[in-house]
């Protein structure tokens, strides 16, 4: 299915129309191609579940730059924390006003609310991205809700192999994607804050293997 929309933009004394072309494919894959100020963006593939959304896009005109995003969908947690803090404070005010309890109860509830909000909403991560540039290296990005972005660049000649690791604990089992770095004793986690399922990690892993010329291998790690 192909659509074409035109965005009108003023440029000096004239107006320039830039087309936006949307191509929708079968299943959950989609392609989006737009031209806005000569910047191209293509969404090649996406997968979603209740907690995360994986997006493989092409932000830059060069096809050599491969970008993968893991986006957190747990937006409701923030509202739950605020609602809990409000209920605690409302109960404390009710006991103080109607039940004639001590004012210290209100102070303690305020202190509890502040600690709760700081503990649960401290540096919430909005998404983590992997920018693969085969000629240069891999850039790992962590985007916070506050707008702050943390970036870490790993040169391509330092990467020995990307590996998918199955971590088994007494209570859970999950997958991680790591980079084995030349001359380093510890591996670099690709996604440090989010734990997407293996069906999302495998797309990033295959892209990293292709960029580094590594064989696709997995391993299991017991904790």
From TrEMBL:
<dbReference type="GO" id="GO:0000506">
    <property type="term" value="C:glycosylphosphatidylinositol-N-acetylglucosaminyltransferase (GPI-GnT) complex"/>
</dbReference>
<feature type="transmembrane region" description="Helical">
    <location>
        <begin position="103"/>
        <end position="121"/>
    </location>
</feature>
<dbReference type="Pfam" id="PF10181">
    <property type="entry name" value="PIG-H"/>
</dbReference>
<dbReference type="GO" id="GO:0006506">
    <property type="term" value="P:GPI anchor biosynthetic process"/>
</dbReference>
<keyword id="KW-1133">Transmembrane helix</keyword>
<feature type="transmembrane region" description="Helical">
    <location>
        <begin position="79"/>
        <end position="97"/>
    </location>
</feature>
<keyword id="KW-0472">Membrane</keyword>
<keyword id="KW-0812">Transmembrane</keyword>
<comment type="similarity">
    <text>Belongs to the PIGH family.</text>
</comment>
<dbReference type="InterPro" id="IPR044215">
    <property type="entry name" value="PIG-H"/>
</dbReference>
<comment type="pathway">
    <text>Glycolipid biosynthesis; glycosylphosphatidylinositol-anchor biosynthesis.</text>
</comment>
<dbReference type="InterPro" id="IPR019328">
    <property type="entry name" value="PIGH-H_dom"/>
</dbReference>
<protein>
    <recommendedName>
        <fullName>Phosphatidylinositol N-acetylglucosaminyltransferase subunit H conserved domain-containing protein</fullName>
    </recommendedName>
</protein>
<feature type="domain" description="Phosphatidylinositol N-acetylglucosaminyltransferase subunit H conserved">
    <location>
        <begin position="129"/>
        <end position="192"/>
    </location>
</feature>
């Amino acid at each position: 299915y192909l659509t074409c929309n035109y965005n009108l933009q003023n440029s000096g004394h004239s107006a320039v129309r830039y087309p936006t072309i949307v191509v929708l494919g079968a299943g959950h894959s989609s392609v989006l191609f737009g031209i806005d100020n000569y910047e191209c963006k293509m969404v090649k593939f996406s997968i979603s579940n209740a907690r995360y959304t994986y997006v493989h896009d092409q932000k830059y005109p060069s096809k050599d730059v491969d970008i993968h995003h893991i986006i957190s969908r747990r937006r409701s947690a923030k509202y739950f924390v605020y609602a809990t803090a409000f209920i605690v404070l409302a109960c404390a005010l009710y006991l103080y006003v109607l039940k004639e309890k001590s004012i210290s109860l209100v102070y303690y509830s305020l202190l509890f609310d502040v600690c709760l909000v700081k503990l649960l909403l401290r540096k919430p991560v909005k998404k983590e991205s992997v920018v693969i540039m085969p000629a240069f290296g891999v850039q790992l990005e962590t985007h916070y809700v506050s707008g702050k972005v943390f970036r870490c660049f790993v040169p391509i000649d330092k990467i020995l192999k990307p590996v998918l690791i199955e971590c088994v604990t007494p209570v859970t089992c999950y997958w991680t994607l790591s980079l084995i770095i030349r001359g380093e004793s510890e591996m670099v986690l690709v996604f440090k804050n989010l734990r997407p399922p293996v069906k999302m990690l495998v797309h990033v892993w295959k892209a990293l293997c292709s960029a580094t010329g590594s064989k696709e291998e997995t391993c299991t790690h017991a904790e």
